[in-house]
Automatic annotation (TrEMBL):
Domain NAD(P)-binding intervals: 7-315
Species in which this protein is naturally found: Pontibacterium sinense
EC numbers: 4.2.1.47
Catalytic reaction list: GDP-alpha-D-mannose = GDP-4-dehydro-alpha-D-rhamnose + H2O
NCBIfam families according to UniProt: gmd
Superkingdom of the source species: Bacteria
Name of this protein: GDP-mannose 4,6-dehydratase
An example Gene Ontology molecular-function term: GDP-mannose 4,6-dehydratase activity
């Protein structure tokens, strides 16, 4: 068992919760940043779902407040820092571009700078994203593919990515950027398309609603399982050299076909329920993403274990169980 300490921002989110569980199982002491935006509104359902609420140490810290990171890093001197906090919903980033820039972009600089001052021996992971490729020209995206962000979210993440690279090259800090393609799970937020679909399919199956309204169902994504992907984050920080990695499955599927998997699993006909609604189209779309995980396979020994079909079925079943109170 490990005697290491890890600090995770975004511990109440999908990836933060799965990563905390993985590290606790490895014997880490896990400290998480908890943004206390109101006295009542602390979002603990994912930690509860995984049975780890009470097993992690939670410290108040907002991405906009560097002083909270200096305090926490000085206090715990973590071996590993995982920066997962973000305003992570692409659609919202057009409505709140500046907040997204501050939390998702400058927030990463806040924690990098706090690390440089207070815990320079720590190893750092930045949650970068395939959205940085945006309007790419290459059929498969790898670590050497040029970036072309297509949303305020992607632009903010690109700044955070280059700050991570620059802190490594300028100061010799152990900082890694994981360029992760979409990953989902029963712990995914309801605003993202997979969970929106699986929750709606569960509700339709249970007679609680009749329609599912979506935007661009021709968009293609490379979808993996969050539980597999947090393992790759940890592996990056166990290497001799800090580096950047694409984490993906190497398969791309349309939103339409992903949706079909969910409906077919429950014996429902998608055409009877799906409505295309202009409200859910974006000002600019990323039409297709397909990652090349060859470097991660070679250097980290990592591959995606869960297929899209297995994951969507797990999500639909979890939503049916949740909605029927099981
Ligand atoms: P979530 O949206 O589920 O989690 C985001 C986390 O950030 C939550 O814990 C949230 O807290 C926290 N947060 C938001 N604003 C602040 C703030 N101002 N200060 C402190 N914490 C804040 O994201 P995921 O778990 O899905 O993703 C994790 C990271 O990986 C994100 O940075 C995301 O952008 C990135 N990413 C995700 C991918 C995916 O497919 N899931 C793919 C590639 C990158 P609260 O719960 O209280 O709101
Ligand atoms: P994405 O995920 O934007 O790729 O970002 P999302 O699930 O929101 O959208 C995927 C694709 O589905 C299309 N779509 C819809 N999306 C949503 N949310 N709701 C709809 O009704 C709908 N209809 C069609 C979208 O247009 C898009 O093409 C996620 C986030 O987790 C980011 O934080 C992360 O960086 C990237 O994945 C990789």
């Amino acid at each position: 068992m490990s005697s290491k300490t890890a600090f995770i921002t975004g511990i109440t989110g999908q990836d933060g919760a799965y990563l905390a569980k993985l590290l606790l199982d490895k014997g880490y002491k896990v400290v998480g940043a908890m943004p206390r935006r109101s006295s009542s509104g602390v979002n603990m359902w994912r930690l509860d779902w995984l049975g780890i609420n009470g097993k992690v140490i939670l410290e108040d810290a907002d991405m906009l407040d560097m002083s909270s990171f200096v305090r926490i890093l000085t206090k715990y001197q973590p071996d590993e820092i995982y920066n997962l906090a973000a305003q992570s919903f692409v659609q919202t980033s057009w409505d709140q571009p500046l907040l997204t820039g501050q939390v998702t972009g400058l927030g990463a600089a806040n924690i990098l700078e706090a690390m440089r001052l207070a815990a320079p021996k720590a190893r750092f992971y930045q949650a970068s994203t395939s959205e940085m490729y945006g309007l790419i020209q290459e059929p498969m995206q790898s670590e050497t593919t040029p970036f072309y962000p297509r949303s305020p979210y992607a632009a903010a993440k690109l700044y955070a990515h280059w700050m991570t690279v620059n802190y490594r090259e300028s100061f010799g800090l152990f900082t890694c950027s994981g360029i992760l393609f979409n990953h989902e799970s029963p712990l995914r937020g309801l605003e993202f398309v997979t969970r929106k679909v699986t929750d709606a399919v569960a509700r339709i199956k249970l007679g609680m609603q009749n329609e599912l309204r979506l935007g661009n169902i021709d968009a293609k994504r490379d979808w993996g399982h969050a539980q597999d992907y947090v393992e790759a984050m940890w592996l990056m920080l166990q290497q001799e050299e800090a580096d950047d990695y694409v984490i993906a499955t190497g398969r791309t599927v349309t939103v339409r076909d992903m949706c079909k998997i969910a409906f077919e699993h429950t014996g429902l006909n998608m055409e009877d329920h799906l409505i295309i609604d202009p409200e859910f189209f974006r000002p600019a779309e990323v039409d297709v993403l397909l990652g090349n995980p060859a470097k991660a396979e070679k250097n980290l020994g990592w591959t995606a274990k869960t297929s899209l079909e297995e994951m969507i079925i797990e999500m639909v079943d979890a939503d049916i169980a949740r909605l029927s109170g099981k």
